[in-house]
Write a structure and sequence with these properties.
By secondary structure, the protein is mostly helical. The chain has helices at 8-23, 30-37, 41-47, 51-56, 59-72, 79-92, 96-110, 113-136, 141-163, 175-190. Helix 8 packs across helix 9 (141-163). The termini are far apart. The model has no long low-confidence stretch (mean pLDDT 88).
Length: 193
């Protein structure tokens, strides 16, 4: 078996998600993941400490991208406009690889309670990063928290639509879907009065 192959990290993630869906998270070993990816266990461990870390691998990057977009928004942007800028920044970084992983990730998460908890903490981390970025812009804490939670919901809604296998074969970019989801949520908030 070759010691190095391109895209090892991506191949490991795909292999893990396929195995989690087939065998379950608890019954999948690191050795099985490495073998499915055509790699060695040592290659796995160069990329990930353990199989749990694989599922959280994108959380920090996504949270950072959301916060960067908020920070880069125009100085006079409203909190929701800043959140929209965060969604735009993060959405533009999503590739067809992310789209292909969506259904596999969903199946793996839904099949395991521990993974459901990790997924919930991912949302919490995204909201915290966005809240912090909004607070740094001088947005009051309560407003920042609400705007961030709406941003997380918009991202998750847009992403779910983007990866939905029932949608067109080419759904285009993610950004228009997250923008549309945020607009829907803005409208829904006006109905709360």
């Amino acid at each position: 078996m070759p010691r190095w192959k391109p895209d090892a990290r991506q191949r490991l993630i795909v292999a893990a998600l396929e195995l989690f869906a087939e065998k379950g998270y608890d019954d999948t070993t690191v050795a099985q993941i490495a073998e499915r990816a055509g790699l060695t266990r040592s290659t796995f461990h160069r990329h990930f400490a353990d199989k749990r870390e694989m599922l959280a691998a994108g959380q920090q990057t996504l949270s950072r991208l959301l916060a960067e977009g908020i920070t880069a928004a125009a100085p006079d942007a409203t909190p929701m406009t800043a959140v929209a800028a965060g969604l735009e920044r993060a959405s533009m970084e999503m590739t067809s690889f992310n789209r292909e992983l969506g259904p596999l990730m969903h199946a793996a998460v839904e099949a395991n309670d521990e993974l459901k908890q990790r997924d919930a903490s991912k949302s919490t981390g995204m909201a915290a990063a966005m809240t912090h970025a909004l607070s740094d812009r001088g947005v009051p804490q309560a407003v920042a928290q609400v705007a961030a939670e709406l941003g997380v919901l918009a991202f998750k809604t847009g992403f779910a639509r983007w990866v939905d296998p029932a949608r067109d074969a080419d759904p285009g970019e993610l950004a228009p879907l997250t923008r549309a989801a945020l607009d829907e949520l803005r409208m829904a908030v006006t109905e709360l009065r």
